[in-house]
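During the no-cost extension, the postdoctoral fellow (Dr. R.K.) reprocessed legacy sequence entries with the updated structure-token encoder. One reprocessed record is reproduced below for audit purposes.
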Amino acid sequence: MTGPNWARQAIALAGMLALCGCMPAGAALRGAGSAALVARFDADKDGGLDRTELAMMVAAAVRGQGAEQDALRAGLAAAYWTRDCDRDGRLTPAELAASDRCG
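Re-encoded structure tokens follow.
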């Protein structure tokens, strides 16, 4: 990643991490942001993100091709999956907004 493209991707990632509760942010912002992310990428409208939908969300934040982008996408997706507390393979807005991660 180089130049302005890298900067846009870094801003998008920071915003997504803050909204999902992966970075410190207010509870209301986390909740609203998580609900908005799920609503935007929940293709089957089941109220949560499955692996395919999460991959689409991460791909929207990290555009481009190459090893660096692939590593960013994989790392971001793995960070999101640590929030699947009930291990059902779906991320709900509540799981994304939780202030503490599951063990």
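Confidence is low (pLDDT under 50) at residues 23-29. The first helix runs from residue 3 to 19. The remaining legacy entries will be reprocessed before the final report is submitted.
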